[in-house]
Amino acid sequence: MSKIPAKPIIEFTKTAAPKFIDFVKKNPKEVIAGLGGAAKLGQEWVNGKEVRVQKKQKSGKVHYRKTQYLKYYNEILPKLDSYSYIQLNSYTQEIDNFIKQIHQEEANELVINKPLHSRRSKTWRQIQIQIEDKIKTKNYEELFKAYNSPSYESNYFGAKVINHMRNIENKNELYKYIHRYTERDMKDIERDFF
Fold this sequence. Notes:
Elements: H1 6-26, H2 28-58, H3 64-76, H4 85-108, H5 114-148, H6 159-167, H7 171-182, H8 186-192
Helix pairs in contact: 4-5
C-alpha cells in the first residue's frame, strides 16, 4: 500500500471543513434525512440477514443448535433479568446438553473438524457461564429481599423456596441453605443475613 503524505490531507481538510459546516447549517433537514437513510439501510441489512437465516431454518438448511445459539445470543441473554429461576436453570441444562452433543460429535469425526467443534463448545460455554452467574446473583438478591421483608413475594422463586428459608430458625442452617443457592462466601452471607 502506498503512503499518502499527510500535508495535502491536512490542507484539504482545512479548506473543505468550513464549506461542509456551512452546508450542514444551511441544509439540516437534508443532512438528517441522509443520516436516517443510512441508518435505515443498515437496519434493512440486519433484517435481511435475519430473514435469510429464517428462510434457511424453514428449509432445514440451518442446524437446530445454530438456531438455538442465535436465540440465546439475541433474545435470552439480553433479557436474563426477566426469567424465573426454573427457566434459567432449564436454559443451563439445555446448553449443557448441547455441549455434550458437540463433544460426542467431536469424538466421532476427523481431526480436521476438531477446532471447529472446540470453538462451538467454547461459545456455548460462554453463554452458559453468563446464565449461571446471573442465577447466582439473582438468587442472592431474591433471598436477601425475602429475608428482609416478610411480605415480599418473589416472581423469580417459587413460594416453596422462600417459605422454607423463612421457616429455618437455626442461623447456621439458614446460611447453608443460602449458600446452596448462591455459592457465595459464607462471610458475606453471615454479614448480610444476620
